[in-house]
Every structure is written in structure tokens, then in C-alpha cells.
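Appendix B. Raw example, untouched.
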Amino acid sequence: MAQVEWSHLGVGVETGGLDASSQPARVVLAPPTGLAFLSVFFSDIVGSTELRARHGDARADQWHGEVDVMTREVVEQFRGSVVKGLGDGLMATFRVPTEAVKAAIVVQQSIARRNRRAAVPLLVRIGIAAGEVDVTDDDVFGYAVNEAARFCAAAGAGSILVGEIAAISARRADVTFGDPVMVAITPAAPAATAMPVVFDLGGDVKIPLPSPLEKANLGGHFVGRQSQLEALMACWQHARSGEVHVGVLIGEPGLGKSSLLGTFAKMVSSDSAFVLYGRCDERSSAPYQPFIDALVHFVENCPPDDLRSSLGPTAGEIDRLVPRLAERLGVPSPARSSDPESERWRLQDAMVSAIRRLSSYEPVVLILDDLHWAGATTIDLLERLLRIAIRDRILIVLASRPWDPESDPHVGQLLADRHRLLQPVTDVLLDGLARHEVMDLALEWKGRADIEGEQIDELWHITSGNPLFVSQLLRTTGEHELIPRDLPQGVIDVIERQLERHTPATLDLLRVGSLMGLQFEIVVAAAAAGLSRSVVLECLEEASQSGVVVALDGSPLRYEFAHALVRRAIANQLSPGRRRDLHSRIARALEAVPALQRDERIHQLAQHWFEAGDLGDPTKAVTAGCAAAALAMSHFALADATELLDRVDQIALYVDDARTLAEAAVLRAEVECLAARPEARSHQLHACAVATSLGDPALMARAALAHSRNYFSVYGSTDQERVAALRGALDVCSSEHRATRALLLSRLANETTFDASRERGFALVDEALSIARELGDPATLASVLNHRQYVLGGPDFLAVRLREGMELCSIALEQNDLLLELHGRRRLCASATENADIALVDECIVRLKQINEQVDLPAAKWEMVSVQASRAIVAGRLKEAAALVKRALELGTGAGQSDAFVFAGAQLMHLNYLRGRLPSTMDTFLDLTPVEVTTPLVSWVARQLHLSARFDEAQVWWERALSAGLESQVDVGVNAGLVLTSWAYMAAVSERDDSVITMLQRRLWDYRDRLFNQLAPDLPGHHYLALLADAIGDPKGADEHFTMALDLLQGIEAPVMAAMTQVAWARSLMGRHLIEESRQMAESALDSAQRAGATQIVIDARQILEVG
């Protein structure tokens, strides 16, 4: 029986996606046992046997699955817990009867909605009873359970029967019931009273079109474009049948993209589509703005009950972008993630999931207008939607100019690669109207039929059929004219001529508005222009009548320019000085006017203070720019944040306030490090220096903690400057800032991983862990646990790493933090490999793949592919491993990871050895290896040279390792395995030195039943102990260790690694003149090596057989 998911007592993990198989596992707390008062809910599909007989098991299972998913989602939405599936329905419990009844109503409404668009309708009956039940670990028992089951069986198709106790509670929540009915529960008991629920199945949700689409073509002047409309409607028909389609509408300014979109939107809206509309603004740098605008309009116009059903569990997640949504629906706002990249993923995933969720409710048309102005974050989110949404009822319409030099390069790349998308893409190209269409447009404007053909020819020629230009020319002429007597020299002339008819006050207001963007807020524009309310209203009435601007619905009151060219023409009239002065006045007006959308206001202030330059307030410009950059960073719009900080740097030349400049420097470091850019280190060290010069503890900590990844900066050495910054921040960190101290301590310990004093690192992470546990803050604790995974290396701490790795993954699940789980799973995978727990390794890899399907991070993919390569090496899949190593190197290099070559190089060298290619690649490897290679790698290089039969060179490197001494190299936990295996190999094949061998035997003993797993997976400790025993003439010890090594490797199904041990054992036996035993061992190794393509093992085994 299924375990009760007490989601109202436990912690749920949601991704918001529609594919249940890709969601992370749900965290379920153990249910309480014993007696409890609960409401029991039974559901059942009516006529399921007949359904299977008529349509077959496959289709019936598909439909049953739809109903099951629908019902489970509703149960969770109303804080219920699914107890178990019942074949054609399910059993659930609720703590409150009202929630059980409301859930039942929503289930019936959802089924009804599904039936309206399905070829085969399904009907469900539901029974509910409340009472005291007995809860066990995996089921619920009691009279109320029997009652609910019988009520369900007695209910009619599409109806709900509720017991008396539950009905009394539900009545208080305005639930209506019909006449009572009597239902027999058991033959011995009297019949029970059940109340049928009276409810409305609801109809299609109608959402009004967004204002820009609704107001398109209000004047009725829309002609032609029939082929374009037909193309868009064909896309719509594909999308509404369940296949995401993309329509790309391309046209120059003025060709009527907005008019076409408005006409098309009205057509599909009447066909039950949800039309979501967002426009990219030239002057807006707010992250995801067009998507936010699209969802805000939907949320504001959708009834709460339908909103709750249509958005489902995604509602809470998008609350941070759609203001007051969670409050309106009565759902909690989710906690922010501890990891920036994971938080960015959650924001994007929530918005993508919301759009996909809506498409399961009704088909969706998502229109992104003026895509050429889109920022990097908008394109990033759009690309995420295009990667995930494949089999959804969504039509995505992208409207853009062919090319604009001011566009973000990501826009151009997306449009250039659009036909490589997974979804079908239809290009809808707009060019000028045909001559007869210009004639039709002129007839509509002038309202007369006696227009001369020569006039139409001239109008068509000078406008190239551009509808805006044609309309503007027709607007400026008299009743009997088509072309102005003084012909304009371009479109701007036409617009300027139209503007000349306005009063000076109107022109002043329009000039201010033109600098605020395509849309402008009236209160702000009026304050900046210095006009009274009455004058402003007169000006707007004049500009509206002339068609320059149109009023927008909503609050605050906004107006929009009729076309971007109108706004540009007005703005271009301004001199540079006048332009800067107006930007300064707009910024001051923005500061004085309260904002409903705080995030939007932050970006507006930054832009206008930037544009004001030296005629504004440079200090305020830097402060506003930093606020906007920080906001962009919090939304993980790192490209936007960098662009804002570049502008901050320009205006900072006029600022002499040290603290303001320090804040900007620290923020720059945080953004650069988060983006993992090459210049991040220099920016971080500069920020540390600036913060230190101010003596500001908070800034010093922020600067020191900025990092590009969750572990040490450079493999094999210590970044002393970063260490100094961390220590400096610790010195001034006050006792009350304990979380900051824990973060600094653990980061310092990780950063000093390769220092000589290992005990010091232990002390640092122990203190950090003690503080984090006392604080009880999951984010701080998770960060500390992550750093401890690197500091606590070696066999002595393997159990600790395994335990804390599990805890780290558990916290990640509780926080719904996929990136944190990714880090935890990767480290857990490494520890499990060392522990020879291959089942846990495989479990971690499966989960890593699931996470990476949802999180688009190159560094995360690099780490996952590196882990997959190691697993393939252990399994003996050498060809697959080589391809994965190559891919890992590409990903790691592309992600700016300094360790990419080290890790890939070690894995590749191991594979080259196994495949017999090491001698031919050794020169290339040495050319790429720095002369001053880090000490831990010296013995490893010696080993590779010896395996390549370059014995003299190997001896030179081995002597370098001996002169450095073993202890200084194994003191660093992350190096211990690499050093010990290399030393053991070289000690076994070199001139006998009993003191070195005895020391190595002592050090290897704790590793005897562990796999070494530094850089690349290696043989267990027993293998190397066998080599050392053989080297000092201890055949019994050698055989014992070889036996244990072989048993371990065969137990984890590592055939090539087992063959390597067999070859080494065969050599030992041959040296003792045990010819037959040696041949048997070599033949076994040869068989495994040939199957895996391990050429070197094949060669070694054959040499032994030839000698024998």
C-alpha cells in the first residue's frame, strides 16, 4: 500500500513543470500514527470497464492517467494527502472537511473542462466522509473510510456525495447541498445520510485582450495582409492540437506588425485562446519584462478560482514577479534559494511552468512584440521555454524588425538559428502594401471613390507601401489631397509636420514623454515638464486627437506613442544639453512620485540619471545604477547587471564619495564572480582592497565571499590574495554576525585546502559547522557542509563526508534548491565511488542527469559529464568514457573552469594507457605540463612516464618526489589518494627501499578496501599493498591482497580494473615460477580486456602467456 503523503505537515518540492518524471523526489515526513479526526475522500471513474472494452487498454490507461494527475494536483492544492491509488480512482485524506468538499468540486470542474475539448468524455464520482480514523504507517482505517467508499459507489456520474458531519462544516463555507439520500454502509448497520453537492461546472474563462492588441485598428484602417493572417492561423491550428509552434513576424517599422497582431489576436481570442502579450521596450532593462507584463495582465483579469486552477502550484513561485499574486490566491510565497544560480532557475522555471500550465487549461498564444529590443534575460527565458515546451498547446509569436544595430546580440543569434529549434517555425514576412492595397487604405481614409490613379501611384512610390507612412501622409493632407504639396523628404518630415500643429505645452510634454520610452507615466511626465494637471489633460487630449499618443488602461495613468518612429522623431529634435537636462528633471520627478512597481522604478531611475550625465547628480546616478544592477543580479540577469555597472563606471568618474564607489566595486566583483568571467578575480581583489581601505566589515565580507564556484580557486595551489581577503574580513567580523563568520570560516578552509597545515583547516570548518548548527539557518548550514566536503579529505573522513553529503542533499530538497542539490550529489557521488558503493553512484548520476535537464549551466554539465566519464571507466566502457572525457573538457573550458584540463587530462591519460596509446601521447602531455608542476603531481607524472616505458625520465621525476617527501604531499586530503597510488607504484617498480615501502604500507592500510578516486578512478588499496608485498618478497601477503582486490573489483562489476589486477598478479606468480597459475590469471585478464577494448591489458596478458 502507498504511504500517506502528509503534505500539510511535511515539506513539498515542486518544479512547476508538467512532466512528473522530471520532478525531484517529494520530501515526505513520516505520518502520525494512531487515532485522528480526518475527512476521507474517494474518487472513481465511472464506466471504466466499458471504456477499456471499447477503446483498448492503452488509451484507457492514458485517460486514467490524465484524471489521476488532475485529481492529485487538486488534492495537494487543498492541502490534502493521497493515501493510495485504487485503480480507477484514489483515496485521500484532509484535515478540514471544507477543503475536502472544495477539492471535490474543483476536480469535477477540471474533468468538465477536459471533456469540453476531448473526443471521449470521462465522468468521475466522489464520496466524502469525516470522522475518527486509525492511521498506520501506510494506510487509514475506520468507519469514516467505509462511509466514504460507499458514498462514492452510490454517487451518480459527475456527482459528489458528502456525509452529514462533513456537510455541516462545508455549509459554513457557502457550499450548497441538495436533498439528503440514504446509503447503506454495512448490512448490519443502519443506512447513513449523504448530502449531494450542488455546484456549477463552470464555463470557458474569458480574458480580455491586452490593451495594445484590443486598441489596434480601432479606426478600422486595416487592409491586406491576408496571406500573413492565414499563415498565423495555420500556426494556431497546429498549436491548439497539442504541438508547440513558433511564428516569427518580421517587418520594418511602420509595416503594420502591431495591427496584424491585433487582428490575429482578436480572431484566436474568439476561438477560446488565452492571449498573453508582452512588449520589449527600448529603454527598459527590467529582467523578463515582456513575460511579466503578459502574466500580470492575465492575473489581473482572471477570476481567483479559475486563476488558482489554471496556475496550480506555480502561483506561489511567480509571486515575486507578479505582485500580490500569492496573497490574492491565499498561497504562501516560497522562500528564496540560498544559491543565486538556483534562484535564477526557479524564477525562470516558474514562469515557463505557468505558461505551460495555462496551455493545459486552454490553448495559449504568447506574443512577444518588438523582440529586437529584448535584453539578454528575456532571450534567456524565451530559449528556456523553447527548450522545454514541445508537446503543449502553445503558439509563440515573435514580432521583430529584421535587424537593429542597437539590439542585443542574443536576439540576432536567436533569430538566425530559429529554424534549428525543436518546434516547427513559420516565418511571416511583412513588406509594403501592394498598389491596390494602398488604394483600399486611401479609400478608407478619405471616404470617397474619385481618387486618381496617378495620385495612388505617387503615394505608393514615395512610401513603398509602408502602412504607417501612407497613413501619416493621408492624415496630414486635406480632404481632396493624397500627397502634401511640399513633399516631405522622409518619414520624419511627415511626423514633424504633424507635430507642428500642437501647442508649445503639448510639445513640451511630448518631449519629456519621448525620453521616458514608448509609454510614459503622466504624473511623472507632468512633474518633469513643470505643467499643471489641467494643462496636462488638455495637452493629452490634443495629442490623442491627432493620433500621436493613445491612452492605456490601468493605474497609474499612462499614454503610449502611436509608433516608435513618432517617439524617435520627437526625441531627435532635442539638443544634447536639452536632452540631459530633461533626463535629470525626469529622474527627480521619479524620486518624488510613489511607485506601484518598485523594481520598474529602480531601473527607470538608473536609466535617467545615467542619461543626465554631468548635468544630473552623478552620485545619485551611481547609487541608482548599483541598485538596478543588484536587482538584476538577484534575478540572475547577469548580462543586464554587467551592462548597468559599465554605465556606473562611466559616471563614477564624476563621483568622489568613497563609500559609494566602494559599493559599486563590491557589486561589480559579485556580478563578475557569479558570471564566472575571466576578469572576476581582479575585480574581486580590487573590491577587497577598496572595502579594506574603508574598514567596512560588511563590504569586506561581501567582497571576500564573492566566488565563481563552490570550492577552492585553483587545483594544487592556494590563492594567497583571496586567502588574505578572507582573513581580513574575519578579523573585523563582529560577534553578532555569526552567519557571516561561519561562511567566511568555511570558505577560508576550502580556499586553503592545499596549504601545509591540514589541522588548521579542520579547526576552521568545525567552528563554522558549530555556528551554522546553532543558528539553524539552512542556507548557512548547506554552504558550510559543501565546503567541508573538500576540506575533510582522505579515508579517515569518508564516513563523515558520506553522512554530511546526505544531509546536504536533504537540505537541498527541503529548500527546493536544485543547484545546491547538484553540488551535493556530485560530492556524494565521489565519496560513494571511494566507498565502492556503485549503487549509490548510479543513483546520484540519475539524479544529476535529471537536474541538468532542468538547469542550463555549463559548469554543472561539466561536473556531471566528468562524473559520467569516471563511472564509464569503472564499468569498462572505454569508448564511451573517451567521448565523455572529450565532452567534459569542452564544457569545462567553455565554462571557464581552471581545473577542466587537469581532470580531463588525468582521465584521458588513464584511458590512453588502457587503450595502448600512452607512449604516443606522452610528449604532448609533457609539453602542456608546466615545468613547475605542483608537488602532488610529480609522482603521478613519474608513474605515467614509467607506464610509457620511458624509465630514465620516470626516475628523474621519481627522485623529485622522493626529495620532497611523502608527508608534505599526502597532508592535503584531496591529494592523498593520487600521491599514495603513484608512490606505491613507483616504489614497487624502482630499486628496493624497505623504509619507503614500510611507510607506504602503513599509510595505505586504511585505504585497503577503498577505491582511489582522485582526478580519475583508480584501483583499490589492496592492489597497491599487493604490489608492495611482492616487491619486498612477501608472496603470501601479495596473494592475500590480490585476492581481496580482485573480489572487490568483480563485486562492483569493474572488468577492466579487475583485469589490471589479474595482470599484476600474473606477473607476481610468474616471478615465483608458478607458471600454470600465472597463465590462468593472464588468460582471464585477456578475455576481459579484449571484450572492453583495453589494448594495453591485452598486450601485457599476451606477453605473460608467451613467456609462460
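End of appendix B.
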